[in-house]
Protein 1
Amino acid sequence: MNRRFFIKSGSVALASFGVMATAPSFLKRAVASALDSAGGRKKTLIAIFQRGAVDGLNVVVPYGESNYYDLRPNIAIPKPNGGAEAAINLDGFFGLHPSLAGFKPLWDSKRLAIVHASGSPDNTRSHFDAQDYMESATPGVKSTADGWLNRFLQSKADPQKSLFRAVSMTQQMPRAMQGKAPTIAMANLSDFNIRAGQSSANVQGGFEAMYDQAVNDTLRGTGKETFEAINYLKQVNPAQYKVENGATYPQTPFGNSLRQIAQLIKAGVGLEIAFTDVGGWDTHVNEGNQQGQLSNLLRQFSNAIAALYTDLGQRMDDVVILTMSEFGRTVKENGNRGTDHGHANAMFIVGNSVRGGKVYGDWPGLKNDQLYEGRDLALTTDFRDVFSEIAQKHLGSTNLKSIFPGYSSSKFRGFLG
């Protein structure tokens, strides 16, 4: 086990802190840096990647398009009719999949915005390449060294050097967060105590010695603070965390990830970027409509995000949740009652600062001559326009060119004030 692996994959976190006098040094710095350099409260972005290419047309349903029903005779979502298995009306043209009922209160309170027909301008239908392009934010360029979230961290100084400024609740460090800026990937907060809690004292001595000897290592000191975090975690016991405001997280890995992100936000450890992902969206066969494979995934997905919003309460004034997927799926269903790899998709943005209750973007239509390459929803909003608006208006970035090299955003959609 080496230093970098230990820092990035060790499940280290803090929750529900008590007396500040006994808190580790990184926590004291985080509390001291609760305000950003402009004097406002620090903001947090929670980025969620739906890996596998979700079918955006059955998620945000264009029920006002007759071609939608013509091309999907078996898997289309019924038009809104007040029933529990029909689309949930949004604006007279678009509707939510019925399993996204957890999103309707957010929509009604204008805390949820949607950007439809969005995604990557690159035409690849490879999951691997499309995810790489979206996370690096350089479509068509495979040689980009770092991810867009890491470039944001590089572009904005963090004088307090918070140990938990950027955290991914995933097994591996995602492409979006790889780069020069320090980041941490955690599999699960409670797993760390199970795997290493009893032996942490023996491990601690060896690693602290290694760090102390690394005089020229830019991460010197981080190791000691990592072990401070481990020891403090054992004291506060994350299993004792209590959700607030009646929130109920689904008992799924995704629900657990969002619950733990809420723990870190409430702990006040300086979290600025949080990331997690959820898979299973590659619905080539038996996708289903109001019932079935996609429906089950969407129910867990929306209920987890709704629980996170509820749990954080007023803290959502300073938090934005962004969802993304590498590409959409074909407009026409295939012979297996599923959908194949497509192009444009739908993104969700949630937060108290979001100008919600609206589907943003230019709708291209689903007639044959309006489809991309004669088969897919056409792209009208580059995903970098969405990322850029959040980076600038929410996170306070003043140097978008360094975050999105070779691209100048020209279509801020106005979903943030």
Protein 2
Amino acid sequence: MNLIVPDWPVPSRVKSLMTTRAGGVSRAPWASFNLGDHVGDDPDHVAANRAYLRQQLPAEPGWLRQVHSARVVELGHETNPEADAAFTREPGQVCAVLTADCLPVLFCDRAGSVVAAAHAGWRGLAGGVLESTVAAMRTAPGDILAWMGPAIGPHAFEVGDDVREIFVASHPEAAAAFAPHAPGKWLADIYRLARIRLQHAGVQDVYGGGRCTFGEADRFYSYRRDGVTGRMASLIWRS
């Protein structure tokens, strides 16, 4: 299993990681470490991959039914919740989100007392999933750190006028995150858009960003690139 360990200055009690597509048992087009159970992969293969991941964790992750919403749940309060972000203050509970181009964002406070994970595609990002996560953590936004995992990069993320207008209507400075590409089409920088949203929410310490899931086919799943594909997990917990 090939893991990414986020590089950010979190307290020692906070642990985080992100999986890649390498090191599992799934076969093409999901090869090989697919953790998504909703993408058409053999359920036995997904279960085997999740069991292998579980060996690296203190508990089974709190998997979500992600729907590109801004809903945030507290782990342990619902079974198989429909949401796109989760937080916990309980030691040993693992927040997790699945992605394959969308932006995963991990959060913790400076004291390591609360952690969270959010799934931010453009719809969730525009809908306020990051702001909702910060609010749900119920701590001063200035004390929150965020880490952005690999997502589709600014040279591959084509969107239409409608998407650009949604972001610019909320934050005029978001116009700088869109580069003209073709008539009615733009290349969007999801990392820059997320930073703008986080800064407006009061989160100043933001790390990560810069990798492109679309461009690194041997390392990352990409829905835009492949259509039928697997999902990677970004996870965070506290001891």
Protein 3
Amino acid sequence: MATQEFYIRGANDTDARGPFSLEQLTSLAETSGVTKETYFYDATSEQWVTIESNAELMAVLWPEKKKITFKATQTKTLNVEKEGDAPITVEQFLAAAEGKTDDTKDRKNKNVIMMQAAIWGTRAAALICILSAVALALPNIDTISSFDVGKIIAQPYIILGIIDLAIGLLLALGMISLYPLVRFRAVFGLGFLGFLFWTQGQSPAMLAVVATSAGLYFCTILLSYIPLAIAALVGIGGAIAMAGMGLM
């Protein structure tokens, strides 16, 4: 059949078309150029017959598609209701999801832990900023209390302290959208104040600035309790050291 030539015609056609090879006839079948009711000239019987009457030709032009079946599997129910079990309430369901029940406390949701760590990181960053503001303001308290705008503007430490105080208060209110500004403040403080004290030979002051800036920066990016606690202690310790030494 592969080398056979076919002449075809419709039921009401007076003229035949062809010859077509089997490949060409297959292409016509794919584009509906021929149908199962189309006639072809059967050289064996020397008569016009429909394609659907020839099983071999039907199998070539419209091969039967294999059906995909899935093997039935037996399922087992893990949660079996026991007599006397009380229905689960919404509060119990939420508590289980947050790892607050005896059965789920060892599988506490990591997202919840990260969220809580981020909250403590924000609080620690707020405290560091406020302590830094105090450290920057204390040596210039006389200038601040004079309310002389000209003198205050002339003191960059006071301006930086005011910025730190504003950032700290906003962080205390939970404005985590300030994180990019907080990180910039940490890097700026490390570069500006650290370089200033290094050129003046004030190594303790420089180390206090480095600790404050590093702690502030990492409090905004860490989401694990232990590293966050270390960063917070370093930052708070550095800010307290700055205030205690009266660096400005």
Protein 4
Amino acid sequence: MVDGTVTEPLAEGPALEAHLSGLRADFARFLMTWSIVVDGVWWLTDPFLLRGVPGAVGAFAAMRVCVLACGFAALALLRGQRTLDGARLVACVALWSVEVGAIAGCLAKIGDLSTPWFHCLYPVVIATCIFPFSIRARTAFASVLGAALLAGFVAGRPDAVHPPFFGPTVGYMAFAVGIGVAFGHRFHLLTCDNFRQRRLVAAQREDLRRQVELRTEELRDLAQHLDRVSEDERHRIARDLHDDLGQSVTALRLSLATARKRFDREPSSIGANLDDLTDLVRRVSDGTRDAVAHLRPRVLDDRGFAAAAEWLVRTTERHCGVPCALRVEGDDPAVAVDDGAAPAPDAEPAARAADAVSLVAFRVLQEALSNVVRHAGATHVVVMVRFDDALSITVDDDGAGLPAASERGRGMGMLGMRERARAVGGTVAFEARPGGGTRVRCVLPLRAHEVAA
């Protein structure tokens, strides 16, 4: 169904045909069961409702016997069957034709076509619309039942073929057949469309289930990776504090003790010790500044992402020996936050959004440069930063390129970059550069209303 319009199924495959055949069996059992129930209950009222019509009680009794016999025979034929097609369908149609013909013959005993008895049977033909058939099979089915009704009535009252009522009756029957075919075909199209929609929804549900499982597995792996990285970072910080700052502080303490002893003996002799102390204090200061900068560079809060990107690119170039070029276009709208603290709860939404985007951009660029250094084996890196409606970061390298398709996007670093960007409404894409190398493209929204809360 497209925009409320039902279209003919393009291909009724085995699954659809099995579904329609199952519906035919269900509808046939439903009709036969309720015809038996209604006929048995109604039979009890015949002596009271039909006693004023000559011969009606006997005719209706014979009709009800036919209905019950054919109904039970049809249910026996359908017993244990989940589908209705082939020879069993032909047998059921023949049985129903005999049933409706017998019903018409019984009604012929109590009145000709000028009475209402036979004309009450038109709904039997129209009721064929509930069975899911193709239009050709439906036309044949309804026509057979209509012909059986006329034949049964004529067999019970041969004089009914004479005018003036027989001609209009045939026309009414043809009209009933047409109504049954038209509405039945409409129902058939709706049934087919409903089946296709259900299969489509089932396929989409299965695809969504697989995606959820995949995302859950990715996030589980990412959480484990972040735990490992966090633990490694704690070890690194502890090692730096112990090996660098700790040793420098110990040396500073010893130098102070030595200077104090010399000062007690000869105050003028501590000049060399003061130089050592100055050098040790500088080393402690540099070590502290490097540790803090590695955790979160102050330049990101004080001067925005553009300056932080410059610091990160130059630091990478200096420590790793990979030439890096940085180009910045546009004005950085970052909002500074003192001492690296999180924005106050009453801060402006734009300030909080800009701070979140700047931090995500810095971590994405940091991870991208780290991947280049560790995995790409590149000899040159170009970083492009653009500020307009969004913050765009492009990192191009001339290294080994993307991993194999089966491994692409499975690395925890790449997954972490995607998740960070997604958290603020951004995207990260990894592309193979023409001529070799990799391009990492990150786009982050800058407007406060575009950043996910």
